[in-house]
Amino acid sequence: MALDPITQAIRIQTERTSQMEHSTPLFLTSSFTFEDAENMRAAFADETDDNIYSRFSNPNVQEFVDKMCALEGAEAGFATASGMSAVFASFMALLKSGDHLLVCNSIFGSTHTVITKYLPRYGITYTYVSVDKPEEWEAAIQPNTKMIYLETPTNPGLDIIDLAFVGELAQKHNLILNVDNCFATPVNQKPLEFGAHLSVHSATKWIDGQGRVMGGVVVGKKELIKEIYLFCRSTGPAMSPFNAWVLSKSLETLDVRMERHASNALAVAKALENYPAISWLKYPYLPSHPQYDIARKQMKNGGGIVCFELKGGLESGRAFLDNLQMLSLTANLGDTRSIASHPASTTHAKLTEEERLAVNITPGLIRISVGLEKAEDILGDITQALGKL
Ligand SMILES: *Cc1c(COP(=O)(O)O)cnc(C)c1O
């Protein structure tokens, strides 16, 4: 019986033990035992799939990976301790000295640091290309370009990149297309269907969805995942079995949660769009979004993030955060609880104003990670905070 991926994310399960448990137990063990010398030899020779050591194989981690592969339509995957270790492994396992990376200019801060500060030490060069103009990316491809790396929707600006367009570009030039799919989640957007070879995630965000554990995962083409597996097997950024157990359970509710996050976000976005204290607002599923048509084409819903620009810039941004009564001020996103952030005074404060503007981070930009509280309560807190500006 062919099951829908959403059903598979609920039903895929580690083989039952003799206890006949219904819920998967936690395999909190560093290593696994063998019946005899021959079984042990065969496992080490990769002739069997038997678990050896939890740095590179564990039933809880494998269950989480199998569910992720089902959701994204991927051949294989590997889970890591955090989103950043997944991103880093996807670079280090597949790029070598002399290779060039084409990167969309609006990416997660730590990914930017890895690309600009660490990769050049290993002889890997990069070119940043504009998120607004994918049609200009082809001109930046060099003979030694090996990979295109992008995020869509972008953080925090919610720009949308046409995955089918970039997928064709990657195929034409025989490049690996590596997409950070964290913001959309695997139930909302499946980059591999548009020609991506890898989809990477911070599982810390929507996948956990409750702000509890760190995790990361890469899914995609078998031969690429094999390289990532071998890199991680030796270098050790392993996902803990406990975190995998939590995250596997989280995947069972991801689709339901994301539908509510998105409907709450759409309600908040619609209500605030023409609010007097706001100069503009962006949400992928609002017709006013510059890439609305692309969002409709590649995303099942608009996701859980809304961003807007306050009239009054930096000072208004800080005052808005202080005026909030319910929304949390915290660095995370993708939680049941709504979160507000002001990138210009926090995550992106170290950049110059010019550098911030180059990646569409304006002084009064507010990012809301819309939670699962009642939409009226989320909106109520935001509008009372805006009213006091
Ligand atoms: C948080 C985040 C990461 C990094 O993930 P961690 O789990 O914090 O290491 C990477 N990409 C995006 C888009 C993120 O939001």
UniProtKB/TrEMBL annotation:
- BP term (GO), one: transsulfuration
Any one GO molecular-function label of the UniProt entry: transferase activity, transferring alkyl or aryl (other than methyl) groups
Keyword DNA-binding annotated: no
Cofactor dependence is on: pyridoxal 5'-phosphate
Keywords linked to the UniProt accession: Amino-acid biosynthesis, Aminotransferase, Methionine biosynthesis, Pyridoxal phosphate, Transferase
What is the E.C. number?
Answer: 2.5.1.-
Which EC class is this protein assigned?
transferase
Pathway membership: Amino-acid biosynthesis; L-methionine biosynthesis via de novo pathway; L-homocysteine from O-succinyl-L-homoserine: step 1/1
N6-(pyridoxal phosphate)lysine: residues carrying this PTM: 205
Gene3D superfamilies per record: Aspartate Aminotransferase, domain 1, Type I PLP-dependent aspartate aminotransferase-like (Major domain)
Task: Note the subunit structure.
Answer: Homotetramer.
What family is this protein classified in?
Belongs to the trans-sulfuration enzymes family. MetZ subfamily.
**What job does this protein perform?**
Catalyzes the formation of L-homocysteine from O-succinyl-L-homoserine (OSHS) and hydrogen sulfide.
- Protein's name in the database: O-succinylhomoserine sulfhydrylase
